[in-house]
């Protein structure tokens, strides 16, 4: 049995090592994506003009009026002092061609005082320029920058499958790390002074044992983040009732109908403020998201700059039909069934933000550790493969020598 598990661990490790190496290093970086992005691109984050700022809703109207080719789809509703207002846009339909206008950007940095656009970029574009570096790394982390193919997000599915293999492999690795009850201390030891292969082996085995629980959490949450709708939610729903996801529920959503009017952002913000008071939320609406193809608005409740949720289970979100103003659903952290809370906790756990700054530091260190475990695993595999190859060559040489000696 042990021999079979060793083989499984070996090949699971070889299959996933490169993916986990990339995911570990990029995860360590994007734990600080906002801070690093701002440091690299001050002109994109810092407003050039001081003075009284316009409201976010006014700035969105100004941007759309200045360039009729686009519409604002994500809008922070409050402006951090001294910062630009960063909004997400998408192209409108060109009446002449009935195709979306060609835009080479989807994110704008707007001066909140003058309404001027200080910067444009295509978020997640394959580019190592300073302006695009952090979004590129962020997208690389969970999609490997692989494109949609046939309506399928290949990269997201692939990294989710890697997470499943990693989860099973972690269980196998723990079992293999304790071959004998009497020698259990060896599985926690590091022979750093010996260096060479002994140190590499201990970094891989003992390093994995010390942080095994954290690795399991990251593996599980990576599956939940990438394969929530097709895999995780159906499994969780067998164990606990789940509140329907407002953005993925055909019974709630509807396609836009001819003649449908879209409620103004101002009206949706009014509805959100009323709903927030009814839910006794401590923070006002902080961001508004419009999804044209499902005819819905989403509103997040958070303070300026806290769109990721820097502590606890994240931010509340509510969703409205963009034509009727009907409340489609809500996700209030810490409320709902056990299954709902389980789904809510996945991103805060994966990002470390559930523990605030300390959690982000821990996740960043853990990302580096995952990269080290992947690299040391490959080195061990290569060394053993070379040893087997040399052994086979020596056996062949000995056999040929024996045959030659036996000849008359």
TrEMBL record:
Pfam families in the record: PepSY_TM
Keyword field contains Chloroplast: no
InterPro entries, A to Z: PepSY-ass_TM
Keywords from the UniProt entry: Membrane, Transmembrane, Transmembrane helix
Transmembrane spans: 12-32, 154-178, 209-229, 361-382
Protein name, as recorded: PepSY domain-containing protein
Originating organism: Paraburkholderia metrosideri
């Amino acid at each position: 049995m042990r021999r079979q598990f060793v083989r499984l661990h070996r090949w699971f490790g070889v299959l996933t090592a490169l993916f986990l190496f990339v995911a570990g290093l990029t995860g360590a970086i994007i734990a600080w994506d906002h801070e690093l992005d701002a440091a690299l691109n001050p002109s994109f984050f810092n407003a050039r003009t001081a003075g009284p700022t316009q409201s976010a809703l006014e700035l969105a109207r100004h941007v759309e009026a200045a360039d009729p080719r686009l519409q604002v789809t994500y809008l922070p509703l409050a402006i951090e002092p001294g910062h630009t207002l960063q909004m997400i846009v998408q192209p409108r339909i060109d009446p002449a061609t009935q195709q979306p206008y060609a835009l080479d950007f989807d994110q704008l940095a707007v001066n909140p005082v003058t309404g001027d656009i200080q910067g444009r970029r295509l978020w997640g574009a394959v580019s190592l320029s300073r302006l695009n570096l952090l979004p590129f790394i962020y997208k690389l982390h969970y999609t490997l920058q692989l494109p949609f193919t046939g309506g399928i997000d290949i990269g997201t599915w692939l990294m989710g499958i890697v997470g499943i293999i990693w989860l099973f492999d972690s269980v196998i690795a723990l079992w293999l790390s304790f071959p004998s009850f009497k020698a259990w201390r060896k599985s926690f030891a590091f022979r750093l002074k010996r260096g060479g292969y002994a140190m590499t082996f201990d970094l891989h085995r003992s390093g994995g044992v010390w942080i095994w629980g954290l690795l399991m959490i990251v593996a599980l949450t990576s599956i939940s983040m990438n394969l929530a709708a097709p895999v995780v939610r159906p499994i969780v729903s067998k164990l606990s009732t789940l509140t329907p996801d407002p953005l993925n529920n055909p019974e709630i959503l509807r396609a836009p109908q001819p003649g449908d009017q879209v409620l103004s952002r101002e009206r949706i913000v009014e509805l959100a403020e009323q709903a927030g008071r009814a839910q006794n939320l401590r923070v006002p609406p902080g961001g508004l998201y419009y999804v044209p193809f499902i005819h819905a608005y989403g509103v997040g409740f958070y303070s300026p700059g806290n769109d990721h949720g820097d502590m606890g289970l994240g931010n509340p979100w509510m969703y409205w039909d963009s034509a009727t103003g009907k409340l489609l659903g809500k996700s209030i952290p810490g409320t709902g069934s056990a299954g709902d809370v389980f789904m809510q906790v996945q991103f805060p756990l994966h990002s470390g933000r559930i523990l605030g700054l300390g959690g982000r530091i821990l996740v960043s260190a853990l990302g580096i550790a995952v990269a080290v475990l992947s690299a040391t695993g490959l080195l061990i595999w290569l060394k053993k493969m070379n040893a087997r190859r040399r052994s086979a060559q020596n056996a062949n040489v000995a056999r040929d020598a024996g045959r030659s000696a036996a000849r008359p």
